[in-house]
Design a protein that fits this description.
- The complex is a heterodimer of chains A (238) and B (590).
- With 238 residues, chain A is mainly α.
- Chain A contains 7 helices and no strands.
- The N and C termini of chain A lie far apart (58 Å).
- The mean pLDDT of chain A is 86.
- Chain B folds into 5 domains: 34 residues; 138 residues, Orthogonal Bundle (Cytochrome Bc1 Complex, Chain D, domain 2); 100 residues, Cytochrome Bc1 Complex, Chain D, domain 2, CATH 1.10.760.10; 219 residues, Sandwich (Immunoglobulin-like), CATH 2.60.40.1190; 28 residues.
- Chain B starts with a helix and ends with a helix.
- The chains are: A mainly alpha (238), B alpha+beta (590).
- At the A-B interface, helix 3, helix 4 and helix 5 of A face helix 2, strand 7, strand 17, strand 18 and helix 10 of B.
């Protein structure tokens, strides 16, 4: 069993890391089980390749498995062997049932979260100077117009947010406004969900088209307040 | 100057006299019995340090000022779009406490301990059902204590947390009171007590908050509504633990300061209070097995499944909800948000979820929609717009805090329109190229229209074609005969509406305007709801995201056959491998 011990420990360690370790790394999120399965499969494949590189290591790898499945005088493992023989077909059958039975999960849909903006909204710089007064004013506008959905915490959990899919953007998340330019935000606030290109699934977003209600200057101030409040800074090309 | 000093001295003298009077009165009538059962006298907490207050001020002006306002009067720039409104700190009136009715809440800047620090827990867990978010994870424990030090000393203006002359602390000993097991007997007694104690007068016969619903006001004159016991995740004092009876017990014992909810500590025993808490908690929505609904930590509300399954029935679809087929049909919660994309916006949507069930047979599909609405609203007289009109002139709000005509003041004075509900499905959804759907709000244009079936509380059921958020609906002439309103009833704060429409059969229907309801397909479905007492009409409504109606096909035989075949195959394979190996081994040894 010695040759199998290491691979088993490695697999268990890998699973523990993916399941419990990774989500605790800052800026990371829990992995979906399908992805964990894929990574484990890759790990198993790697171990298998490594173990079967040479003839000796191949035998060392296969022998315990062979002995377990067909060898004689394995003592207490005999019961386990029968267990495997019985459980394996049941597992395969259950898997088949799971993949043919009707699921109650909605079909997956692709949505480009940050589609490319039209030309006139690329590379604009914020005409409003970044002064404390302007930031305060922007935060005030944010509180009045944006916070019902995007939340007082800038985390997309405002009281009016519930029920909407996609959920309002979480600005505190480093993968939203921190990786976008100010001109991108200007485009999104001005044109709203209706102004998204087709790959952005415009039929789903509830984001209002603020150009009909707010002057450009306010929008720029809101952008200042948004970055400040969410403790992020816009992406720049310098 | 002189005057104010003498005045103050006078007040202090009077207060001191009062204290003597009260305490002597207490002594004469056996001190301990002066307290309601389950309460004990406590000491006022020491004042927080000046550094704490100063640091808290900085936190307040970055995080809290936007809703609670510069002076803590609950009038920040965000306040007018929130319902319930942000707390006005000035009066020192706080809702969720362990202290007796009318007293200040527990707060000690040095003791962030659950059960001993009401304000700290409120900031940590937020107030579910309101805009107050949980600040745990955003603000450190230290920062939460700092900001509260600032609020309790500088923004609470009419009272003083450290003033022994005017303030007392009579504390509910919740940690020492063991909850009573929620037996049937206890719940039964609770059910009797809520009638006896007149809880039902405000909370309604079924506890949906529909008694006296539009006549209650809080201390600031804003409209306030009794809690709906069936949605415990909206209980402000639930501390993100909605199914915990202790929280209900606490609210019932202490009352909710500043609101018409009194404390029942004086006229109920602890035992009776547990019975009531057990009964109220038992009303909260649960799954078919009676387990609490799983709560989504992102919203602090029940988790959502976006597929609404429809089960096949043989023969007629029953019209009675009590019928076995409906009882067995899976029930799905549809989360509703206010329509905030276009004007007039609905920031105070009163309908926040709908329960949906569905059944179908060879001819029809029936939706059973149930939602809580505290008032049955049927418009009096003729409405000044046609049913097809979308761009109608209803008032969104007048965002001025506390003034005449503000959104809060108006809560009781809206013109009453019809309660209504609509099911919207995409037309030709199968022919649309893969990622494309019509907009959830009344469709995109003529190319991507929506099929809208709308019921109104005046008893009408109409079918429309929607071609854009600002385009009037188009009426569909010969479709309405194909639909049927199976049931519509308002009872004790809840609407029950059953709508029947044809399933697709390709032959005698054209599908340019109608959705083809096909078995085994995910049909994009959106729900809209209007509360007539909230001034909802036209685009001012509650909306859902895209859900899917899925008509469960009769389970195909393959679903059962394939797994068995494959499992048997694997067994044979195992046998073959084993015998082969056994033979080879024999060969070797021989």
């Amino acid at each position: 069993m010695g040759a199998l011990g290491k691979p088993i420990i490695l697999m268990v360690a890998m699973y523990a890391f993916l399941k419990f370790g990774l989500p605790n790394i800052p800026g990371s999120a829990p992995l979906p089980s399908s992805l964990i399965f894929l990574y484990l499969l890759l790990t198993a494949g790697g171990i298998f390749m490594f173990k079967t590189l040479s003839g000796e290591s191949k035998d060392a790898f296969w022998d315990p498995i062979r002995r377990f499945l067909t060898g004689e005088n394995i003592g207490g493992l005999q019961a386990l062997r029968y267990g495997v023989f019985i459980l394996f077909p049941l597992l395969v059958g259950w898997q088949t049932y799971g993949s043919t039975a009707v699921s109650d999960l909605p079909p997956t849909e692709s949505r480009t979260i940050h589609p490319a903006p039209p030309g006139e909204y690329t590379g604009l710089s914020n005409p409003v100077p970044k002064t404390p007064e302007n930031i305060m004013q922007g935060k005030g506008f944010y509180a009045a117009y944006c916070s019902p959905c995007h939340g007082g915490n800038f985390d997309g959990k405002g009281p009016a947010a519930r029920g909407f899919i996609p959920a309002p953007a979480n600005f505190a998340d480093p993968t939203t406004i921190a990786m976008l330019q100010e001109s991108y935000l200007f485009w999104r606030i001005k044109k709203g969900g209706v102004g998204l290109p087709i790959e952005g699934a415009p039929w789903k977003s509830a984001m209002p088209r603020w150009e009909v209600e707010l002057p450009d200057e306010w929008i720029w101030k809101i952008i200042l307040g948004e970055y400040d409040g969410a403790h992020q800074s816009p992406r720049t090309w310098e | 100057m002189m005057d104010s000093i003498t005045q103050k001295a006078g007040i202090i003298a009077a207060a001191a006299f009062g204290v003597v009077l009260v305490s002597s009165a207490g002594y004469s009538s056996v001190s301990a019995q002066g307290l309601p059962e389950g309460f004990k006298k406590g000491d006022l907490s020491p004042a927080p340090s000046a550094e704490m207050i100063e640091a808290g001020k900085r936190v307040y002006f970055t995080k809290c000022v936007w809703c609670h306002g510069v002076d803590g009067a609950g009038d920040g720039p965000g306040a007018d779009r929130l319902w319930p409104r942000p707390r006005n700190f000035n009066q020192g009136t706080f809702k969720i406490r362990h202290t007796a009715s009318g007293e200040l809440p527990l707060f000690d800047a040095k003791k962030p301990i659950a059960g001993q620090n009401d304000l700290f827990e409120t900031v940590t867990h937020g107030l579910p059902g309101s805009a107050m978010p949980p600040w745990e994870g955003i603000l450190s424990e230290e920062q939460r204590l700092q900001v509260l030090s600032f609020v309790t000393t500088e923004l609470v203006k009419d009272r003083k947390f450290t003033d022994k002359q005017s303030e007392t602390q009579t504390i509910l000993q919740l940690a020492e009171l063991k909850p009573k097991p929620a037996t049937d007997e206890s719940k039964k007694r609770g059910a009797e007590l809520i009638v006896e104690k007149k809880c039902v007068e405000c909370h309604g016969m079924e506890g949906r908050g529909d008694g006296n619903a539009f006549n209650l006001k809080d201390d600031w004159g804003f409209s306030i509504q009794p809690a709906n016991w069936h949605k415990c995740w909206n209980f402000r004092g639930s501390r993100q633990d909605p199914y915990n009876v202790a929280n209900i017990f606490r609210t019932f014992s202490t009352g909710v300061n500043g609101t018409p909810m009194p404390s029942f500590a004086d006229n109920t025993t602890v035992d009776e209070r547990w019975d009531i808490a057990n009964f109220v908690s038992s009303l909260c929505e649960r799954d078919p097995l009676g387990n609490p609904l799983p709560i989504d930590p992102l919203t602090d509300k029940p988790k959502i499944n976006f597929v609404i399954p429809s089960d096949l029935v043989e023969g007629e679809i029953p019209a009675e909800i009590e019928h076995e087929a409906w009882q067995k049909a899976p029930k799905r919660l549809v989360a509703m948000g206010g329509q905030i994309t276009h004007k007039p916006r609905n920031f105070v949507n009163r309908i926040d979820d709908i329960w949906v069930r569905s059944l179908y047979n060879d001819k029809y599909i029936v939706y059973l929609l149930e939602w809580d609405d505290r008032t049955k609203s049927v418009a009096e007289g003729k409405l000044p717009w046609a049913p097809t009109q979308v761009n109608i002139d209803v008032k969104e709000q007048d965002p001025k805090t506390g003034e005449e005509g503000s959104i809060a003041m108006k809560q009781n004075n809206y013109a009453v329109y019809n309660d209504a509900i609509a099911i919207e499905t995409a037309v030709k959804w199968k022919e649309l190229p893969a990622p494309i759907k019509p907009r959830y709000l009344f469709g995109t244009n003529d190319q991507y229209p929506m099929d809208i079936v709308k019921w109104e509380a005046d008893g009408s059921l109409r079918a429309f074609k929607g071609t854009g958020w600002d385009k009037d609906f188009e009426e569909r002439d010969n479709y309405e005969e194909a639909m049927k309103l199976v049931k519509s009833e308002w009872k004790n704060g809840r609407w029950y509406v059953m709508i029947q429409r044809p399933v697709g059969n390709k032959k005698d229907q054209d599908y340019d305007e109608d959705t083809f309801f096909e078995v085994g397909q995910y049909i994009p479905t959106v729900f809209f709801a209007w509360d007539g007492h909230n001034g909802d009409a036209g685009r001012k409504m509650a909306v859902s995201a895209f859900y899917y109606t899925f008509m469960n096909p009769p389970v195909p035989q393959e679903t059962y056959i394939y797994p068995v075949v494959i499992a048997v195959g694997v067994v044979l394979l195992e046998g073959w491998v084993l015998t082969r190996r056994a033979n080879r081994k024999k060969g070797k040894t021989l």
